[in-house]
Amino acid sequence: MDMRIIQLLAERRRSRAREHWTRKALEEYQARALRLVRAYAYANSPFYQQFHKGLYDAPLTELPVLTKGIVMDHFDDLVTDRAVRLRDIQAYMATGRADRHFLGRYRVHVTSGSSGHPGVFLVNRAESTTAMASGARLFEWMGIKITHTHRVKTASIASTLPFHLSAQRGSTFRRLVTPRIQLAASEKVSTIVERLNAWQPELLTCYASVLRILADEQLAGRLRIAPRAVLGGGEVLTKETRRRAVQAWGDVVFNTYVATEGVAGVECNEHRGMHLLEDRTIVEVVDQDNRPVPPGTYGDKLLITPLFKCTQPLIRYEISDSVCLSPDPCPCGRPFRLVEDIQGRVEEVLLFAGEAGGSVMVHPLVFDNIMDMLPVNGWQIVHEVDGVRVLLSGVRGPLDDAVVASDVAQALAKQGVIVPSVKVQRVTRIPQSEGGKTPLVRSNL
Q: What does the CA dihedral 131, 271, 159, 325 come to, rounded to 10 degrees?
C-alpha cells in the first residue's frame, strides 16, 4: 500500500476518536496544541518573535490580529523554514507545475482573491495529510465510507487553476482514494451535463452557484445522475438553492465551508448546521473590534488559529466572513460547534449613503430574500458608481424586470439608504472570478 495512504488512514483514525470527546476534552486538546504551535513559531519565525514580543505567555485573545496583508508583507520572516522565500515560490508558480512540491516538500495554495487580496499559503506533507484526513472523515458524516478498498466515483466542479486548493486536493484524492473527474466551473453547462451523465458520480461537489444550475438541469431532465451525496460550498448556499437541490436529488444535500487558510466546516446527516473542525483549528467569531459575539449573533469576521500548521503559522488570522454560530449543540453528539448561517464576506456588504446622513451597511441577506425566489438559475447584485445593476441569467418563466428593479429599490429604502438607480440586465451567464466563483453580491466602487 502507498505510504501516503497509510499515513492518511492513521490520521483519520486519530481524528475519528476526537469526535467522541467531551467539549472539555476538546478544549484541553486545543490548549495543548496551541502551546506547541506558539512555541514553534517563537523559536523559528523572526516575524512572530517581534509580532508577539512581550506576549509569549499571554492568552490567545490578547494577541494581535494577523491579516492577509501582514502575512504577504512579512512572508519570508513569518514562515519557519529559512530556506523559503516568496520570490522563489512565485518563480515556482510561474512554471504551472503544481504536481511538483516546492523545494521537494511543500504544497503551495493561492487564495482566489475574492476579497481583493490574493494570498500565498504553503503546507508540508504532514500538514497536507492532516487536512486530507479531515476531509475524508467528513464523507463518513454524510453516510459515505471511503477507503483504499472501497472507492467512490466523485465529480468536482470548481476551480481548475493549478494552485487553487480545490484543484490540488481533487488531484490528490484522485491518486490516493477515489476515481474522480475535475471540471472547471467556467465550463459550458452543456459540457458539464454531458460529462456528468457519462461519469455518473456517487459523490458530487461544486460551488453553490453551480449547484443551483445543475439542480435545474436535473429537474428539466437534461442531467440524469443519482449521487449518494451532493456537497455545495465555496459560496453562500441559499435556502432556495438548497430547496431546488433537494427537489432534484432528495435529502442528500450538504453545505460545506472551507477556507484555504485552514478552517473547515460541514454538515452531518442531522442537517442542523456545519460542524467546525475545532480539533484542527481554533475559531473565534468576533465583531469589528475583535470582541467575541455570542451564539445566535452574526459576527463581522472570524479569527482562526490552525493547530496543524507550523510551516506558516497563522495565529489569530483574520477571515472576513460573517458567521452566526448556533446556540444549540448538534443531536449527533460531536463536540464541535455548529455554524448556523453564513451571510458572506464583509467585502460583500455594500455601503450606501444614508437618508439620515452618513453611510448605511446593507447585508447580502437583504437581496437574498428577493432574488432567491425568482425563476432564474443565477443572479448577482453589482454596486456601481452610477447605481445598482441586477444581473439575471437563465430566466425560466415570465418575469417583469421593472418589478424586480422596484423590489430591490424598496428593499434598499427600508434599510434607510438614499435609493440609487436600479437597472436589471439579463445575461447569458453571471461573470465569475478567476477561480470560478460567482459572488451573489459585489461592489465595483
A: -70
- Distance of alpha carbon 84 from alpha carbon 137, whole angstroms: 32
| Domain boundary, last residue among 346, 365, 388 | 346
The verdict on 205 and 324 lying in the same domain is yes
* pLDDT per residue as tens digits for the range 218-234: 999 999 999 999 999 88
Q: Please check whether residues 148 and 242 belong to one and the same domain.
A: yes
Of 358, 357, 353, nearest in space to 419 by CA: 353
- Taking Cα atoms as reference points, which of 128, 126, 91 lies closest to residue 109? 128
* Among 330, 346, 362, residue at a domain's last position: 346
**358-370: pLDDT as tens digits:** 888 787 778 877 8
Tell me the per-residue pLDDT of 7-29, one tens digit each, with 9 for 90 and over: 777 777 888 889 999 999 999 99
- Residues near 169 by beta carbon (within 8 Å), at least 6 away in sequence: 131, 132, 135
Amino acid at 16: R
- Enumerate helices (H) and strands (E) in the chain, giving the number of each: 13, 20
Region of 357 on the Ramachandran plot (φ > 0 left; ψ -120 to 50 alpha; else beta): left
Long-range contacts of 395-398 (CB under 8 A, 24+ apart): 395/426, 396/216
Q: Is 241 helix (H, G, I), strand (E, B) or coil?
A: helix
Nearest-angstrom CA–CA distance, 28 and 35: 11
Phi, psi (degrees; rounded to nearest 5) at 406: -65, -40
User: Which residues lie below 8 Å from residue 171, measured CB to CB, with a gap of 6+?
Assistant: 99, 182
Task: Tally the C-alpha atoms within 13 A of residue 406's C-alpha that lie toward its C-beta.
Answer: 5
CB 313 within 8 A of CB 37: yes
**Domain limits at 395?**
349-443
| Mean pLDDT across 340-353 | 79
Instruction: Quote the radius of gyration of the chain (alpha carbons, Å).
Output: 22
| Burial classification of residue 332, based on how many CB atoms lie within 10 Å of its CB (0-12 exposed, 13-18 middle, 19 or more buried) | middle
The residues, any chain, with a CB within 8 Å of residue 182's CB and separated by 6 or more, are: 156, 158, 160, 167, 170, 171, 174
- CB of 211 closer than 8 Å to CB of 227: no
Cell 493547530: give the residue.
307
Q: Phi and psi dihedrals of 321, rounded to 5?
A: -110, 135
Residue pair 313/121 in contact by the 8 Å Cβ criterion = no
